[in-house]
Prior knowledge:
Largest sheet: 7 strands, antiparallel
Structural class: mainly beta
CATH class: Mainly Beta
Order of helices and strands: EEEEEHEHHEEEEEE
Mean pLDDT: 93
Helix content: 10-25%
Oligomer: single chain
Strand order of the largest sheet: 3-2-6-9-10-5-4
Amino acid sequence: MLPTGVTVIAALGPAGPAGATASAVCSLSLKPMMMLACLDRGSRTLLAVQGADRFGINVLRREQRPTAEVFATKVDQAEKWATVDWREHLGIPLIEGSLAHVVCGLHDVVAAGDHVIITGDVLEVEAIEGDPLVYHGGLFRTLGSDGSKS
């Protein structure tokens, strides 16, 4: 399969922040700027996204593998968020140190197989330099580089 970047999709729910690791995330449109993410139908984060009518995409750095692993579990949301430094911005929980944060207003929710596709209108993007965490072949990986340009 294709290698993908690793993200944590996040929203604020009635009980506090909710988040789930997701690798099925991509740009949907440039004009208007929109994003797409896929979440399991039974995801507690999906319920928080729908309730908040917005969501955030935290693009993880290679050093944030433990974050990806804990947010991929079914442990209590409060336990997940206790493992990371985060801040609220525009009503979205953002994980500190992530390569990028994308804040989206919920545009649509589409059922597809055992997942749900959420689309969002991009409200704000923040990005820093760094190396991304990648998922490929059932494993978390980092990008290797020989330093050359193609």
